[in-house]
Amino acid sequence: MSDTQRLYCSTCKKEEPHRSPESEQEKQWLRRLTGKGYVDDYWICARPGCRNIRYRWEGKSFDPPERMPVFD
């Protein structure tokens, strides 16, 4: 399981718990989205229903915002 951090979410407009990508499916999806090989520095808002993705060092990474899909 990944660590969680309280970071600002540009969708929720406040600090919320965020988690790093947990599964290989999430990492592969982020690699396709960003074109980067290393994606462990992206964080996903853990508030139910949000799943907004942000880069660790930037509050707003994507315009328009990207949300992590739910993988089964």
Provide structural commentary.
- This protein is an alpha+beta fold.
- 15% of the residues lie in helices and 26% in strands.
- It has one helix spanning 24-34, and strands at 4-9, 14-19, 42-45, 53-55.
- The protein has a 4-stranded antiparallel beta sheet, with no helix packed on it.
- The mean pLDDT is 91.
Keyword list:
four-stranded antiparallel β-sheet, 4 strands, about 70 residues
Summarize, please.
The protein is 15% helix and 26% strand.
Strand order in the sheet with the most strands:
1-2-3-4
Largest sheet: 4 strands, antiparallel
Overall structural class, as computed from helix and strand content, comes to alpha+beta
Number of strands: 4
Q: How are helices and strands ordered from N to C?
A: EEHEE
How far apart are the termini? 16 Å
SSE order and pairing:
Elements: E1 4-9, E2 14-19, H1 24-34, E3 42-45, E4 53-55
Antiparallel strand pairs: 1-2, 2-3, 3-4
